[in-house]
Design brief:
Blueprint (H helix, E strand, L loop, with lengths): L14 H39 L12 H18 L5 H27 L1
Helix pairs in contact: 1-2, 1-3
Length: 116
């Protein structure tokens, strides 16, 4: 069922060019969110690695493959934390990306205006 309050989003009076522009903007926003989430995943992985190093060894499971299995476990743990919403850092990263993009657009616009 279409939400009558938000149905104005379905109407685009800009024509086909506007549709392509809107679609490309949405795609760019989704890509930025994905990059921010992946970056957070890497940071969480580094955090988990540091936490893992604080765990003492008992000597019970000190075989050749146990370190690899533990590394895989902590890697999947970090990825799962990020997939479940992470620690919220991706939102700040995403906002920072948008802010720097807007600043660079302003700088380019100012530069073009000064040359004219």
């Amino acid at each position: 069922m279409i939400d009558p309050i938000n149905s104005h989003n379905l109407i685009n009076t800009a024509g086909p060019e506007g549709l392509n522009k809107d679609a490309s903007q949405r795609l760019a926003e989704e890509k930025k969110k994905e990059v921010a989430k992946n970056f957070e995943s890497i940071l969480v992985g580094q955090l988990v690695d540091q936490m893992k190093d604080t765990i003492g060894s008992s000597g019970l499971l000190e075989e050749q493959g146990s370190k690899q299995i533990q590394d895989m476990f902590f890697s999947f743990l970090a990825k799962d934390v990020s997939k479940q919403g992470g620690i919220g850092l991706w939102k700040q990263i995403y906002q920072s990306m948008n802010d720097s993009e807007q600043k660079s657009e302003i700088n380019v616009s100012d530069s073009l205006d000064s040359k004219a």
